[in-house]
Model the fold of this input.
Amino acid sequence: MKKLFSLLIFLFLITNCAFAETVIFNTKTGKIHKPSCPSVKSCTVNCIKIDKKEAKSRGGVPCKRCGG
Done:
């Protein structure tokens, strides 16, 4: 039973990491955009590709157009 429980925890951790969402984070405005957002086309200097959790931990807020 302990082996099964350990296996389930392990699988949960792996799948949780595998589905990390990459977003575009504007370091100047703090906006989080989906890669397909029209606003991303105009963002050049201050935008970086980053994990969504990391963007939120930096104080990022979702874009009103795409919901980031």
Summary: Residues 25 and 32 are 5 Å apart (CA to CA).
